Write the structure tokens for this entry.
Amino acid sequence: MSDPTNSLEELAAEILKDGVIDAKEAAVLRERLFADGQIDRQEADLLFRLNDAVSGKANDPAWQNLFVQAIAKHVLGDEKSPGVVDDEEVDYLKSKIQGDGKVDDAERALLVQIVRKAKSTTEGFQTFVLSVMKTAILADGVIDAAEVEQLRTVVYGAGGAGGATVDRAEAELLFELNNGTSGKPNHASWTELFVEAITKHTLEDEASPGEVDDDEGAWLVRQVEGDSQIDENERALLANIKAQAKRLPTNLQEKMAALGI
């Protein structure tokens, strides 16, 4: 198993004999892969093949840590576009992640890590990440604490669409997630993130900072009415915006008054 004369392909074949990657195997892989301080395309390909083969198995957590760290290093540590996810890298990630027809926990953690570490990414990458997060979270219809933290990174990370701000695509994703999980036993931090992020999107934009302009007011009304019910998270959001905004448009004031806010 640890024979240093084995090629990486031979090492991978040995690891896959039982279909699971344990802590010792992850450690051996880490030592071999990081020996030269770089992760090249051949090594990245091998890691994706290994992950597809052991996806959903009882792997040691060290495997996911290695997979995420190594692929993120491959994408962000290259000489051509250091710290940046370029178009070629987006195409590569999408082909590898979608290659087996599913996005597993390790791959989702990888995308979140890239958003966290990247200086900038492309619009295509941002759209892909938002789509992956939506599909994964709505699969069981409940948002847990770990998913809230991942969402927080995706929404506020430098590699996200809005960076430290919250753009329209991110805000609409949050509304879709809230509609899809309304009334479920979501973690309490989900309400906090939802209210905070949508308020930031509405009040911290460049066009009308501190105010809800007519366009934003119409958008908010459409969003809270989108699933034909207004839940507690949406009521908390409207109350927070009312408390912080310097100005509200008439249509939003009327909606708040009708709801007793």
